[in-house]
Amino acid sequence: MNPCEGPRCGGHTLEAQLGILANGRAEPDFAGWEIKQHSVVEWGRSPKSPVTLMTPEPNIGEYKTQGMIWFVRRYGHLAKNPNPKKPGGMHFSGQHKVSGSPAKSTGLRMEIIGYEPGMKVPELDAMIALVNSAGEIAAGWSFSGLVEHWQRKHAQAAYLSSKKRVDAQFGDQFAYDSKVKLGTGTDFFKFLDALARQDVFLDPGGSAWPTTDGSWEKHARSQFRIRHRRLGSLYEKYEEVDLLSV
Fold it and tell me: If we measure between CA atoms, which residue out of 30, 39, 72, 58 comes closest to residue 175?
């Protein structure tokens, strides 16, 4: 088994132990459950970083028609901490919330179009969108493209904590808490309502950088996230279970 390097190694290590193959499919991870881990300093303490719920790429707007590299160069910003291996690299980042106010980092405001909390049937062309100052859709996610993804991926979700230590011989090592938070009974409306309340937000991490031959490389990361303390709002039932007592 090869050593892992990077900020997501706690999750990759857990997946390897569970026999989960890395893939981008909108399917549950393990035995019908979506598995989410988060790092903590001490057991029982809440993590500082939010949970990534899903990472679908936009299928509407300039992002789709012009491509991601154009999009990042148009709405992104130069890296605050430039990577010397990727000079001139640009990032598309910053929290985008449904608030009516544009994100300072991109100038784009986030809207839910064709749906308001309490509606039983969204409009046919309903979407989540990033809108520019001219009122144009810079990037959008159609409901039709998101609803099945959400239902299949989050019908049952397990959230657990991990702690890391660094071994002089073997490098990063991880331990996992036996106490797991289990969420069941969700639907896409719960996700939308949480988005409207600003519990859920878009926190992208896309980037693009020029190469020596004049072309550009890219890394896509369109992630919808939520703070741990608000996870229960996404499920009908959200409870803690100690696996050692089961």
Answer: 39
